[in-house]
Design brief:
By secondary structure, this protein is α+β, with helices and mostly antiparallel strands. The protein folds into two domains: 91 residues, Phosphorylase Kinase, domain 1, CATH 3.30.200; 122 residues, 2-Layer Sandwich (D-amino Acid Aminotransferase, Chain A, domain 1), CATH 3.30.470. It contains six helices and 14 strands. Strands 8, 9, 10, 11, 12, 13 and 14 form a seven-stranded antiparallel sheet that branches. The protein has a five-stranded antiparallel sheet with strand order 1-2-3-7-6, covered by helices on one side. The longest helix has 23 residues. It is globular. The two termini are 36 Å apart. 34% of the residues are buried. Bound molecules: cytidine-5'-monophosphate (C5P). The site of cytidine-5'-monophosphate has 14 residues, from strand 9, helix 2, strand 12 and strand 14. One of its GO terms (molecular function) is phosphoribosylaminoimidazolesuccinocarboxamide synthase activity. Belongs to the SAICAR synthetase family. It catalyses: 5-amino-1-(5-phospho-D-ribosyl)imidazole-4-carboxylate + L-aspartate + ATP = (2S)-2-[5-amino-1-(5-phospho-beta-D-ribosyl)imidazole-4-carboxamido]succinate + ADP + phosphate + 2 H(+).
Amino acid sequence: MARRKKIYEGKAKILYEGPEPGTLVQYFKDDATAFNAQKKDVVDGKGVLNNRLSEFFMTGLNNIGVPTHFIRRLNMREQLVRSCEIIPLEVVVRNFAAGSLSTRLGIEEGTPLPRPIVEYCYKDDKLGDPLVTEEHIAAFGWASQQDMDDILSLALRVNDFLSGVMMAVGIKLVDFKIEIGRVYEGDFQRLVVADEISPDSCRLWDIETGQKLDKDVFRRDLGNLTDAYTEVARRLGVMPKSAQPMSKPTLIN
Ligand code: C5P
């Protein structure tokens, strides 16, 4: 069997060369990391859930005309995506205060924000993905002014879509992070939502109870991460009960 070419391995995913030019296969691992990989574990079934959930969100975005890198899901852990040049920014959108915003500004977690706040972090693990301003982005040439206009518009459209989808199943979208890629089409370039959208990259709180259904469960040792992600998938109708990931070999009587 021919070994396929690994293009990149990150903390939670691996990218392999795709079957056609301009495509990649994105493989979702079970590895969970937090605090810039200082905390690590393997969470059985996480990759399967994130593959399904990211497919669900990216397909929804494609369907409403928000371009993404997603083409189609291939199997339980892999999806076919368009190859793109990732802009070295993490684009964070916040609807409620939480996480680093609460720590930095001393605002209590859960405080509603008067309007969505968009933040940019420079993607560099060695530096701990520092918060940057549009001045830094322009000065260091990470993105042009036109790119920034497009990124802001994409980020807010993703926020509207995700907030609505989650609200419909009783979940509050507190914040999320997306990454943006450049796709070249002849002489033109287009920006697309890339990477993944999953409970690894969002804060999701149950509207009634405030229960956390996202990676904070792992970061803050709040319980079983697979259970939290399975609950999100169940509410969205993404993973029928019969197709839940089998984390361990199960004895069938
Ligand atoms: O940590 P912070 O509060 O800045 O995170 C904001 C949002 O961005 C959270 O939903 C978090 O899960 C996501 N995030 C991410 N990857 C990072 C940093 C933050 O997905 N490297």
